[in-house]
Design a protein that fits this description.
This protein is α+β, with helices and mostly antiparallel strands. The chain is 25% helix and 22% strand. Strands 12-13-14-15-16-17-18-19 form an eight-stranded antiparallel sheet. Strands 2-1-11-10-9-8-7 form a seven-stranded antiparallel sheet, sandwiched between helices. The chain starts with 9 loop residues before the first helix and ends in a 23-residue tail after the last strand.
């Protein structure tokens, strides 16, 4: 049960239901189910179907296709966090003899390894996986179609390699690792490699007539880590909550944040890609998540971290329903109708007088910046006027600060002191910030004209 403040307004619920009703009708889907999660809790679900009395709900399984890739990426990041591999390691270190051993784990995760998008014929999504018993059958004779590391080119075989990597390092099957390391800890008991009742059947809808054709639901074999899974709207909301905040039982908040960070140049449709997660701009709102499709099914999971809202859209038709568009619009409906309340302002629990002395205006040349102390005892640097380089910084044990985001992500901020202990200036990646613009006597690279400022 949700409290009245957690429930969506009736007008918002009606708008959500109208959107998926329109999507099911216009997309000519046998069924369509969706759910919305806000601040970690599912607050709405709805469905439409062409079969009277047999509507699906948030507990009905659909095949989710390439959303599976995000699960595989989580398994790989877990290995990294345990020190069992490095993302810059070459694939050859773990899977020798593939013919593509020069690609790195990171390049496979973000689709910059240069691999082909698909396997050799026959169409892998619609044929049994035992037709491709070995990696050579998945990769083919010419697995690389682009220079390694140069461009983003989506690759399903790349995630087969990542699944085999997980199996090699863990010593168990991909399915077993998935169950033990993600599904069980997150309570996702309605997500599985094989369908479990109740589940939707997959259908193709004729493009020029209102008639149906059943689609096969094949076991994908080695290709399973790229698109095998079945799941429900409710389970995917649980997964979204994890991807937003992390869960120490599975993966830390820092590591899921890394997954959501762009790691590749924009792809064919202009969208970005992190480590197993798509990143898109939708009406000025940044959405992260993943879409998926397999014959008979289309699916999408999007999250807007700024709004604290996630949406899932699932349909059982090969094409037609625009699940990615609908999931984005469900987020927009909730975010605009019921904007998120900011957390109440609270003063810091204690005052660090040395940090307080660092706050206020600083100048890089003539550019004015403000340095503020944040609630988590971090620092934030932001321009005082107009657009500019803005970054947050976290303290390090050696007294320096490391940039967390923006232009200065990963850069080091140092507080440089004079012999008497007073602050001379800030050094940020060799940029000198002083209390006054081109302050006389300050350590400004190139020096300051001794005559100082002057009129025309």
């Amino acid at each position: 049960m949700t409290s009245p403040l957690e429930e969506l307004l009736p007008t918002t619920q009606r708008a959500l239901l109208h959107r998926i009703a329109t999507a099911q009708a216009e997309g000519r889907a046998p069924s369509f189910v969706a759910a919305v999660q806000r601040d970690g809790r599912m607050v709405w679900t709805g469905s439409r179907t062409c079969v009277d009395g047999h509507g699906p709900d948030a507990d009905t399984q659909y095949r989710i296709g390439s959303i599976t890739k995000t699960f595989t990426a989580v398994l790989v990041l877990r290995l990294r966090d345990e020190g069992l591999l490095d993302l810059d390691d070459l694939l050859e270190k773990y899977l020798p003899g593939t013919g593509v051993g020069e690609v790195t784990v990171a390049q496979l995760l973000c689709h910059t390894a240069g691999l082909a998008a698909e396997t050799p014929a026959p169409w892998w999504e619609r044929t049994p996986g035992d037709l491709r018993p070995d990696l050579a059958d998945v990769l083919g004779e010419q697995p690389l179609v682009h220079p390694v590391g140069r461009i983003h080119h989506y690759s399903n075989p790349g995630y087969t390699l990542l699944g085999r990597l997980v199996e090699e390092v863990r010593g168990v099957s991909w399915v077993e690792a998935l169950q033990r390391e993600i599904l069980d800890p997150l309570g996702m008991d309605r997500t599985s490699a094989q369908p479990m009742a109740p589940h939707a059947g997959g259908w193709a809808v004729h493009p020029w007539a209102d008639v149906l054709l059943p689609e096969p639901a094949e076991d994908l074999g080695l290709m399973a880590p790229a698109g095998q899974l079945w799941s429900t709207a409710a389970d995917l909301c649980r997964f979204a909550a994890f991807l937003a905040e992390g869960d120490e039982k599975v993966l830390s908040a820092g590591s899921v944040r890394e997954m959501r960070t762009p790691a590749a140049p924009p792809g064919e449709l202009g969208s970005g890609y992190g480590l197993g997660m798509q990143i898109v701009d939708s009406d000025g709102r940044t959405l992260v998540g993943h879409g998926g499709s397999l014959p008979g099914f289309v699916a999408c999971l999007w999250m807007s971290l700024e709004d604290g809202v996630a949406a899932v859209a699932l349909a059982n038709a090969t094409s037609g329903p625009l699940t990615a568009t609908v999931a984005a619009e469900l987020i927009r409906i909730v975010a605009e109708a019921e904007p998120r309340f900011p957390e109440p302002w609270r003063p810091l629990p204690e005052v660090d007088k040395e940090l307080l002395k660092l706050t206020g205006p600083w100048f890089w040349g003539t550019y004015a910046y403000a340095l503020t102390l944040t609630g988590d005892r971090g620092l934030e640097l932001q321009p005082l006027r107009g657009p500019g380089r803005r970054s947050r910084f976290a303290a390090q044990p050696d007294g320096t600060w490391t940039g967390l985001d923006g232009y200065y992500a990963g850069e080091t901020l140092r507080v440089v002191r004079r012999g008497d202990g007073s602050v001379s200036h800030l050094d940020l990646g060799s940029f000198v910030f002083t209390r006054e613009p081109y302050e006389s006597g300050a350590a400004v690279p190139g020096g300051v004209d001794p005559e100082g400022w002057r009129g025309l």
